[in-house]
């Protein structure tokens, strides 16, 4: 019987069936569950790495030692892992090495909408693109064959709708594969100029061999419906096109995103009067067709933004729209918010109240940018809060006493540490707040090197953030409880005024962690309507005709609202 | 023929479990099934959508405007937001619960009044239920999602045993009885 599996779960199953023994990843929506599912297989050594570069290097090291290995990440994570990837493209592999990268068209949970196919082209490595869970499983196994046959890392490209959709998969047993013998081979594995020059020749020859392979690979499928219109498509876009256009068109579905075949596309294009290219994000297949002199229509109709859909495709190609009703009034948006009891709230309230400029980072606390706290000024990428703060303070030394960086514990482990080393080394007067909620929150509670627990759930070494910060050379380090607003605010004011750099560690576990015991919900005795509590942006507090009301099913009793109420109307059972 | 069910609500209301129960029920019907979920950022109290599609061969895992046979809304404002996704002649099941979004809390927007009546006025077949009340009766406000699955079971072609099995397989052991009770209360509304 087939099993209903998330795309990410199917990739994990593919890794298991392919005999993979080493997996290292850093969490990132929509890729996270691959590695979480892998952790359930005892046969696989699976780990969270501090960042994607480390994960990639672990996987390449394992491959060099002879094992089949894997690393997974979201699209922006591959930017971090790009350095080892681009040179591992030259060394090639010993045991097969595959990576999965999950793009996020529509930016459901990301800071940009980059198209990972550019990395495959630039690194000159093959990339496969499944369109549903069954293909996720099959393509992952196939990727190991390609990796070992062609001596190359192989990328599996996923997207939100492939990673986070469930469809039916047929499971097989695991192939128990023993490590390939390790043979010292500096010409292949030591990438210094003389060796790398030779390997670059190999890389270019490999690309042509891979292209020849792609011409006949079963991963590229032609579906001829004897029509006038032909559609070249891939991944999730294929599933939308198939629903929108059915058998009114013929399809060339490309499972090989790189290198793209030539003859296969030319022969397909010849058979139909009109060729459309339907691909999400950038026009990579389209550009390839144009380079081949094939007249296609793609981005002119579909653009570069967001996700495609059957609705868009049916409209643009067939001019058909389904009828529907619409609600008669405008519906207020419902943006994501910091949860009731979120320990980050107190810090942002204090920062907002003191009009502090905030160099932000990637995590739940990016939501500190939203109203009503409206605290965060900038968010760029993982770790940029700390390094960016240094840059701000270099450019505007007078602003340093009114500017902080905020960074979560996991993001600090990922790439905040080097930025802090830079602050200590190059001596700006900077104030960094580590929002230590003892977990990687936004991606759904993954452990990290500061939590003392590993991916498999075992107790392990925990980075002591205070000691680390001191060792870096920051002398002023203090820990505050963000549920204690007065203490938190005082610490921020004092450290901003201090004549040297400081780190404030705001420490409180995420309110959603199962081990966190909540005190009974708060109650408003008699509301005087001061509306101070509404400035916290707590989803448990609402405004009912000018009076605040607390939703007892949501409130976890963090007590911050009772600290801001001007009239002491909110009864607090006492914070544990 | 593809059937499309959409579950809409607020992050944290348990829409993911609801879609997994439906998928579990469908898995044993011998049809093709796809379920599409949203994880990550939008789960933090934001508007969340889950799609379930089944039939001979499902291609796209998502549902677009004018496509859904059934929409189950866990919250009134979310029902209003996604009305346009309902197929002409489709059915809506709505929990009467209201949760203010942040723009309403901060006074920058208003929560529309009489949402259910206004949806009815569009000529839409809508069933409104107080799922929260039934869930509390079953023992936990968190079981509203399963109450709504009980309501859904009356219009879906699947035996009750399949739903019971789904609850047993998808819910932690200590909450199975509570959720079965919540399901029954929904079924009998």
Largest interface: A-B, 59 and 63 residues
What is the CATH first-level class name of the largest domain in chain A?
Answer: Alpha Beta
- Mean pLDDT value of chain A: 96
> How do the strands of the widest beta sheet of chain A line up side by side?
3-2-4-5-7-6-12
H/E element sequence of chain B: EHEEEHEHHEHHHH
| Envelope shape of chain B | globular
Largest sheet of chain B: 6 strands, mixed
Report strand % of chain B: 15-25%
The tally of structural domains of chain A comes to 4
Which term fits the overall shape of chain A?
globular
Gyration radius from CA atoms of chain B, angstroms: 16 Å
The CATH architecture of the largest domain in chain A: 3-Layer(aba) Sandwich
Give unreliable regions of chain B as ranges.
none
For the sheet with most strands of chain A, the description reads: 7 strands, mixed
Number of helices of chain A: 20
The radius of gyration computed from the alpha-carbon positions of chain A, rounded to a whole number of angstroms, is 26 Å
Q: State the end-to-end distance of chain A.
A: 50 Å
The second-level CATH architecture of chain B is 3-Layer(aba) Sandwich
- Count of domain modules of chain B: 1
Estimate the helix proportion of chain A, in percent. 25-40%
CATH superfamily membership of chain B, which one?
A: Pyruvate-ferredoxin oxidoreductase, PFOR, domain III
């Amino acid at each position: 019987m087939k099993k209903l599996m998330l795309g990410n779960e199917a990739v994990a199953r593919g890794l298991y069936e392919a005999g993979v023994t080493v997996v290292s990843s850093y969490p990132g929506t929509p890729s996270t569950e691959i590695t979480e599912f892998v952790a359930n297989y005892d046969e696989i050594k699976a780990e969270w790495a501090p960042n994607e570069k480390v994960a990639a290097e672990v996987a390449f090291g394992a491959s060099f030692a002879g094992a089949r290995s894997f690393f997974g990440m979201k699209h922006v994570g591959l930017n971090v892992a790009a350095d080892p990837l681009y040179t591992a493209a030259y060394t090639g592999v010993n045991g097969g090495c595959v990576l999965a990268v999950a793009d996020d068209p529509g930016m459901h949970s990301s800071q940009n909408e980059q198209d990972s196919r550019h990395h495959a082209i630039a690194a000159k490595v093959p990339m496969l693109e499944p369109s549903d869970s069954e293909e996720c499983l099959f393509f992952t196994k196939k990727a190991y064959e390609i990796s070992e046959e062609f001596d190359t890392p192989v990328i599996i490209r996923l997207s939100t709708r492939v990673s986070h959709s469930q469809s039916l998969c047929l499971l097989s047993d695991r192939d128990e594969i023993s490590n390939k013998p390790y043979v010292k081979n500096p010409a292949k594995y030591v990438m210094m100029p003389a060796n790398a020059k030779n390997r670059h020749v190999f890389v270019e020859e490999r690309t042509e061999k891979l292209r020849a392979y792609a011409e006949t690979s079963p991963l590229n499928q032609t579906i001829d419906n004897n029509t006038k219109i032909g559609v070249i498509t891939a991944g999730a876009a294929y599933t939308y096109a198939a629903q929108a256009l059915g058998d009114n068109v013929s399809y060339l579905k490309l499972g090989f995103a790189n290198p793209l075949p030539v003859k296969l596309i030319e022969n397909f294009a010849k058979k139909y009067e009109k060729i459309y290219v339907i691909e999400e994000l950038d026009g990579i297949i389209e550009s390839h067709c144009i380079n081949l002199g094939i007249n296609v229509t793609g981005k002119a109709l579909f653009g570069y933004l967001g996700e495609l859909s059957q609705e868009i495709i049916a409209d643009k190609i067939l001019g058909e729209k389904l009828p529907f009703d619409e609600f008669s009034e405008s519906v207020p948006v419902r943006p994501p918010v910091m949860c009731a009891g979120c320990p980050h709230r107190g810090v942002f309230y204090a920062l907002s109240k003191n009009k502090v400029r905030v160099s932000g980072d990637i995590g739940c606390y990016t939501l500190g940018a939203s109203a009503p706290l409206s605290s965060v000024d900038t968010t760029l990428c993982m770790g940029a809060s700390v390094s960016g703060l240094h840059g701000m303070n270099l450019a505007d030394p007078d602003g340093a006493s009114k500017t902080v960086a905020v960074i979560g514990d996991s993001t600090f482990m990922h790439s905040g540490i080097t930025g802090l080393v830079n602050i200590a080394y190059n001596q700006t007067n900077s104030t960094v707040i580590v929002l230590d909620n003892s977990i990687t929150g936004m991606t759904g509670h993954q452990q990290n090197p500061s939590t003392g627990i590993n991916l498999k759930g075992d107790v392990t070494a925990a980075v002591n953030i205070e000691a680390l910060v001191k060792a870096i050379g920051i002398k002023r380090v203090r820990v505050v409880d963000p549920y204690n607003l007065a203490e938190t605010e005082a610490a921020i004011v004092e450290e901003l005024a201090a004549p040297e750099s400081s780190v404030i560690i705001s420490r409180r576990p995420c309110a959603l962690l199962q081990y966190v015991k909540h005190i009974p919900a708060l109650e408003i005795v008699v509301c005087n309507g001061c509306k101070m509590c509404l400035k916290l942006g707590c989803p448990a507090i609402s405004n009912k005709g000018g009076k605040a009301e607390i939703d007892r099913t949501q409130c976890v009793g963090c007590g911050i609202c009772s600290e801001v109420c001007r009239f002491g109307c909110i009864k607090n059972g006492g914070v544990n | 023929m593809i059937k499309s069910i959409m579950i809409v609500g607020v992050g944290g209301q348990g829409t993911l479990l609801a879609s997994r129960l439906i998928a579990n029920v469908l898995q044993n019907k011998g049809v093709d099934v796809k379920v599409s979920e949203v994880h990550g950022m939008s789960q933090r109290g934001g508007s969340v959508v889950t799609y379930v599609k089944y039939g001979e061969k499902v291609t796209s895992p998502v549902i677009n405007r004018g496509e859904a046979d059934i929409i189950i809304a866990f919250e009134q404002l979310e029902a209003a937001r996604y009305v346009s996704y309902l197929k002409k002649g489709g059915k809506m099941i709505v929990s009467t619960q209201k949760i203010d979004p942040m723009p309403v809390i901060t006074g920058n927007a208003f929560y529309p009044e009489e949402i259910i009546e206004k949806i009815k006025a569009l000529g839409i077949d809508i069933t409104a239920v107080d799922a929260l009340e039934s869930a509390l009766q079953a023992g936990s406000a968190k079981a509203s999602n399963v109450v709504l699955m009980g309501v859904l079971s009356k219009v879906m072609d699947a035996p009750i045993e399949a739903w019971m099995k789904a609850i047993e397989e998808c819910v932690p052991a200590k909450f199975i009885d509570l959720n079965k009770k919540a399901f029954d209360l929904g079924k009998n509304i």
